[in-house]
Amino acid sequence: MSEVAITKEHLRDGVSTSLWSDALRRLRRNKIALFGLGVIFFFILMAILAPLIAPYDPLKQELYNKLRSPSREHLLGTDALGRDILSRIIHGSRLSLLVGVISVGIAMAIGVPLGVASGYYGGNFDNLIMRIMDIVLSFPSILLAIFIVATLGPGLRNTMIAVGLVAIPAYARLVRASVLSVREQDYVQAARALGGSDFRIMIRSIVPNSLSPLIVQSTLGMATAILDAAGLSFLGLGAQPPAAEWGAMLSDGRSLILSAPWVITFAGVAILLSVLGFNLLGDGLRDALDPRLKR
Predict the structure, then answer these.
(1) Does domain 38-54+81-293 have CATH number 3.30.230.70?
(2) pTM of the model
(3) Which residues contact 58 (CB under 8 A, 6 or more apart)?
(4) Tens digit of pLDDT for each residue in 207-220?
(5) What are the start-end ranges of the E strands in 93-209?
(6) How confident is the model at residue 29 (pLDDT cuts 50, 70, 90)?
């Protein structure tokens, strides 16, 4: 009996390793996804090393240097208060990545358990949860986020909460769909027949086999969170002055778009590249983890 169990365990580990190794192999062949990963790694490295590589204090005001065009002294120029734009963009990467991670974490922490329980138990509980999700989805995400931030008060913390709450239905519905296809599999039925509790079955048998779409959605969700947070900051509801945040930098320089375009151009490029990086990586992960592409 023990030899049979050991053999089955080794076979199971071998299959699991093969699936993930195949996905990694396909991801390595996807040059576009690797480019997206490189962009993300660049911003992560920039955020980590911000105090070391930023040439100036991002909050220091030098009014005699205001609205200086890009030069050797200030590579990306200065804003209306004389602050170095390059330094503010470098430090702003910390806030943008933090918003993405926290917002996606909030959405997953609430949406994944709701989706797993809804798909596993079904019935009236499933209908109740999904109707609530449908109601949330019926509102435009940015308008709902604005309402939440306006209720809680402007600020970076409330922006992360708002963006995370708005994204909950996407994770709940995605995980529910995966659970509906997994819960009838033989290994789940076997675990149930052996007397496993519902919680144990969901944690040990269902959630691990629903990770692929969740990984893809979380990567794409990072891009959406960064973009939504920048939009809220542009409207004055996100990070408050003098914080170095890309959306707030766009808001501060919108009146200077003709006279000093560099004030908003480089912050916009930073938002574009970060969102593009996560979207490219997400698309690559979706292709790599798609079971229909397995040979």
Answers:
(1) no
(2) 0.84
(3) 83, 84, 87, 88, 90, 91, 92, 244
(4) 877 788 888 899 99
(5) none
(6) confident
